[in-house]
Specification:
The structure is a single chain. With 196 residues, the chain is α/β, with parallel strands linked by helices. Helices cover 43% and strands 14% of the residues. It is elongated.
């Protein structure tokens, strides 16, 4: 009994195609990959500012202004306690008891915020500001103004504003309001996304 000869295997269709056809197929695939949303990121930084602590707000504004100075598009989404970084005053009139309670307990702006650690009833924040001045570092208020000058997009979370009873008059002028969709639209196009 003799051994039978092996049956030849046909090459895959892609390998059998002519080189010009394969090149065209690769170009079409490359175009499809380039058009995919995950490939369409821009020189953009999207940031959630969740904390109301002074040191974290300083870090957020330093990153935002640094990125904007490098030519990147920057958006900051202020939510929950992060609203403290963009308030300018406290207003009690026209609020219910719970809203007045939040207003009383939360800072009325950057000038009233404390450090996340070693605050010591406000002494730590004053020492930090003094050190920043001695080292010729811009104050948090100056960093905020610089961020506005550099065109950083600042969005106040509508839901957080309503939950905490923060009125428009309590916020610094020139801010946008928006929801999670506003942030996600920026984050989907961003190379860098941060949660502070």
């Amino acid at each position: 009994m003799s051994a039978s000869a092996p049956t030849p295997v046909a090459p895959p269709a892609s390998a059998a195609a002519d080189p010009p056809d394969r090149l065209a197929a690769l170009e079409a695939r490359l175009t499809a990959l380039e058009d995919h949303p995950s490939q369409s990121t821009e020189d953009r930084v999207a940031m959630v500012v969740f904390s109301g602590d002074l040191d974290k707000a300083i870090a957020a504004f330093i990153i935002a202004t640094g990125a904007a100075a490098m030519g990147m598009e920057v958006s900051m989404f202020f939510t929950f306690w992060g609203l403290n970084a963009v308030k300018k005053q406290k207003i009690f009139a026209g609020k219910n008891v719970i809203e007045q309670g939040f207003t009383a307990m939360l800072p009325g702006g950057l000038g009233q915020t404390g450090l996340s650690q070693m605050n010591y009833f406000g002494a730590g924040a004053k020492i930090m500001r003094r050190l920043m001045k001695q080292h010729d570092i811009s104050s948090p208020e100056e960093l905020f103004g610089l961020a506005q000058e550099l065109g950083v997009r600042m969005v106040v979370c509508d839901m957080s504003r309503e939950l905490l009873g923060v009125r428009d008059e309590e916020l610094i002028d020139g801010l946008e309001t928006g929801g999670v969709a506003t942030f996600l639209a920026d984050a989907a196009r961003a190379k860098v996304t941060l949660f502070i």
